[in-house]
Structures are given as C-alpha cells and as structure tokens.
C-alpha cells in the first residue's frame, strides 16, 4: 500500500508542475486586461525628488526606475506606460480598487491593514522613519522628548504609518495631505520638524540644497520607529497571480550580483543621499518558486 501511495504521489507531482511566468500571466485578470489594452497603468507620486518626481514633463527617481524596469520585464516599453498620479495615501489605494491603475509603485508601506485592500509584492526597499529640521533648530530639537513639547509643531502626512508611529511615541503630529506641504511649512516656519520615511526626507532636502544653494536642513539621528518600514509594489486585491509575477522579477533582481536592475536604479537616483545601510536590495517576502527564468512579452 505504501508503495502504491508513493507512486500515486509521484504521478501527481508529474501532472502538477510548477507555475511559470506564462501560466501566471494567463491566470491574472489584471495582466490579461493589460495585454488587451497594450498599455500598463502605473500609479506613482510626482512630488518627491530623487524618489518619484515630475518636472517639465520628465519623470525621475528611484521608484520611477523600478516601475519602468518592471514594465519592461512585462514587455512594455516607456511609450506603453500610462502614468497615474497618486499623491495622497487614499489615492494610492483607491486607484487600484477603482481599476484606474494596474500596479502602484509609490512609497507604500506593507501593513496588515493595507493588505486587506490590495496585494503586495516586495519589499523592494526598507526604510526607517526619521525627522528633518532646520539647522538653526538642531540645538533645541535633538531628542524625542524635545519633539513631545507642546510648542513644537511636527508635520507628517495624513493616515500614514509615520503618523501612527509619532502617536505611539506620544509626539503630537500635525497631519497634512502631501509631503510638499510639510516641506514648504518647514521652510517657512509653519512647522518645526517633518517626520516621514528617510528617502523622502533625504530627497527633498537635497533638492532644496540644489535649488537654493543653501544647506538649510538636517536629519536628526533619532530612532522614531522601532523597525524599518517594508515598501512594496501594490497590485489589485485578490490577483495573487500578478503579485507572484511581480515578486518573481524582484526576486531575480536580488539574485543578480553583477547587473542588478534594482542596484542600477538605486545608484543613479536616491542612493548617493542615503547611508550605506540601505544600499542593497532587501530580501523578498515569500518569493515564488517558478519553473522558468525568462521575461515574457505581452500575451
């Protein structure tokens, strides 16, 4: 009997081979719709220099490069990408729920609550939450206790994980819709500090340095969050086939030690303005085990 069961199991294994990129693409309703449309819609931000930025019709930044590379893996060149603006947190989620985008690459933290609304592939980046202040305030704003003072105005974005972390640390935040509003307020004195993900702060501070010719801002050496945020690519909820395809490409990049698309994207954009600690692609959560290794053209 044991021999018969073993034989049956072996036959079943032979009849049920591993998934492939092709088989997953055929199962993905999103990727099938993309193929029929012959265009892929990608939700991105437009207000974060060196991360995801639009200026004079030109898109630049780390997440833009990641989005372009994923589209290319799927067989879609730049002229086949439809960029969808998603600045606020609600927009980054609703654009998928309302079928206005096929994936979102927009500094979206992978949280259990958000995974009830969308599916994630990743992470493609690990980021700490930090605090940016004007250099003329670093002597008075150096500790978490300083940020808790009633006269200190700390800006962050509404509904973000950064807002929650600040609350957990008993730091009263003044939430606004966009990072630009925080940065503008920090510059003109409306706010005393701006707290969010490190790449966002580093990119905006560097852009201001280039534009103004002055070095007005400084990152505080404070551990605001207890652990780094996992940033992932969001796809429509329930489309596990598409999630696996995107995850597979990210996994391949991580395994490429000589010509990584992730490393190229990082080094040409935000990399020079972050510490060496964040200069390597993070390990993927639950990488799919597929049978093939090739990128496939749209079908």
UniProtKB/TrEMBL annotation:
<dbReference type="GO" id="GO:0006865">
    <property type="term" value="P:amino acid transport"/>
</dbReference>
<dbReference type="Pfam" id="PF00497">
    <property type="entry name" value="SBP_bac_3"/>
</dbReference>
<dbReference type="InterPro" id="IPR001638">
    <property type="entry name" value="Solute-binding_3/MltF_N"/>
</dbReference>
<keyword id="KW-0732">Signal</keyword>
<protein>
    <submittedName>
        <fullName>Glutamate transport system substrate-binding protein</fullName>
    </submittedName>
</protein>
<feature type="domain" description="Solute-binding protein family 3/N-terminal">
    <location>
        <begin position="39"/>
        <end position="273"/>
    </location>
</feature>
<dbReference type="GO" id="GO:0005576">
    <property type="term" value="C:extracellular region"/>
</dbReference>
<dbReference type="InterPro" id="IPR051455">
    <property type="entry name" value="Bact_solute-bind_prot3"/>
</dbReference>
<feature type="region of interest" description="Disordered">
    <location>
        <begin position="277"/>
        <end position="299"/>
    </location>
</feature>
<dbReference type="GO" id="GO:0030288">
    <property type="term" value="C:outer membrane-bounded periplasmic space"/>
</dbReference>
<keyword id="KW-0813">Transport</keyword>
<comment type="similarity">
    <text>Belongs to the bacterial solute-binding protein 3 family.</text>
</comment>
<dbReference type="InterPro" id="IPR018313">
    <property type="entry name" value="SBP_3_CS"/>
</dbReference>
């Amino acid at each position: 009997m044991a021999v018969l069961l073993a034989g049956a199991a072996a036959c079943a294994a032979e009849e049920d081979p591993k998934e492939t990129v092709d088989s997953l693409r055929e199962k993905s309703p999103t990727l099938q719709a993309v193929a029929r449309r012959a265009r892929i819609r990608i939700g991105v931000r437009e207000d974060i220099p060196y991360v995801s930025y639009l200026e004079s019709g030109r898109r630049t930044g780390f997440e833009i490069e990641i989005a372009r590379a994923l589209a290319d893996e799927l067989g879609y060149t730049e002229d086949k990408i439809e960029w969808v603006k998603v600045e606020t947190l609600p927009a980054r989620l609703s654009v998928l729920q309302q079928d206005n985008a096929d994936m979102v690459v927009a500094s979206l933290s992978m949280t259990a609550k958000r995974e009830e609304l969308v599916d994630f592939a990743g992470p493609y980046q690990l980021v700490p939450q930090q605090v940016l202040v004007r250099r003329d305030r670093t002597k008075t704003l150096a500790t978490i206790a300083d940020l808790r003072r009633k006269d200190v105005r700390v800006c962050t974005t509404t509904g973000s994980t950064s807002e929650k972390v600040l609350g957990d640390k008993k730091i009263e935040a003044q939430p606004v819709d966009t990072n630009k509003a925080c940065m503008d307020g920090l510059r003109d004195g409306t706010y005393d500090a701006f707290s969010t993900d490190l790449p966002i702060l580093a990119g905006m501070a560097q852009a201001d340095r280039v534009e103004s010719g002055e070095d007005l801002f400084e990152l505080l050496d404070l551990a605001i969050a207890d652990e780094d945020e996992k940033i992932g690519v969001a796809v429509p909820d329930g489309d596990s086939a598409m999630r696996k395809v995107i995850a597979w490409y990210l996994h391949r990049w991580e395994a490429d030690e000589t010509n990584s698309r992730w490393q190229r994207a990082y080094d040409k954009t935000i990399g020079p303005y972050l510490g060496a600690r964040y200069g390597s692609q993070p390990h993927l959560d639950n990488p799919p085990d597929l049978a093939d290794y090739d990128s496939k053209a749209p079908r």
